[in-house]
Amino acid sequence: MFVRTVYATGNPDRIGQTVEGFGKEALDLLSGQPGYRGYGLFVDRALGKITMGSWWESAQAERDSDTALRARRAELLAPLAGTVATDVWEAVATAPPGEAGPGAGFRLVRVDVDPEKVDEAAEVFRDQALPMLQQAPGFVTGAMLAHRAAGRLSTGLIFADRASFEASRGPNAEARSKAVAAVGGILRSLEEFEVVLLDRRTQA
Asked: pLDDT tens digits for 130-165?
């Protein structure tokens, strides 16, 4: 599968309108496109940051949906009046879809690796990290996305409530440092967001 991510920043005072707009329209807009397989909307209200990802069964479905929805996405982001970065990734390792309600948290980690080690990193995440995470209280789902040519990895983990999200920080930090070292990677960023909306569907 392929995932289109959007990372937007702006005035925290204006973020509510933008989040509300996507919350009302995103699923209807996306689910009407062929090949749609899921969507997540995440927000840092204090700093004025939004990140979201839409999942597609093929690269062509991702491209077609972007062409169809790009203009409306820009309109919905306009109230935030900030910066917008859009990327397309390959989903190289995923946990089964899950459900997240109020209070759920999303942890986003960006790591750089040698492009030749992308598959090795995906294997470490899939075969070592995910089995441990799935035993952790409150774990909902997780995924590793990759830009193969650039050796860029983006890993997201979702926990069901604030308590389990906060409790996971220590164990996640220890596992993360070992995994990054194992593939000779460089951790570029670590961020946390509130889960606003999560819709993941099994692949047809």
From this structure: 999 999 999 999 999 999 999 999 999 999 999 999
Helix (H, G, I), strand (E, B) or coil at 151: coil
- The tokens 């570029």 sit on which residue? 188
Residue 153: what residue type? L
Query: Distance (Å, rounded) from C-alpha 98 to C-alpha 106?
Result: 13
Domain that holds residue 45: 2-200
> How is residue 154 annotated by DSSP?
E
Both tokens of residue 200?
A: 């993941």
The CATH number of the domain where 12 resides is what? 3.30.70.100
Specify the number of domains making up the chain.
1
User: What does the pLDDT read at residue 185?
Assistant: 96
What number of helices (H) and strands (E) belong to the chain?
6, 8
Please check the confidence at residue 197 and state whether its pLDDT lies above 70. yes
* Structural tokens at position 188: 């570029």
- Asked if 3 contacts 94 with a C-beta cutoff of 8 angstroms, the reply is no
pLDDT tens, residue by residue, 49-74: 999 999 999 999 999 999 999 999 99
Tokens (6 digits) for 171: 């164990």
Other beta carbons less than 10 A from residue 14's beta carbon: 15
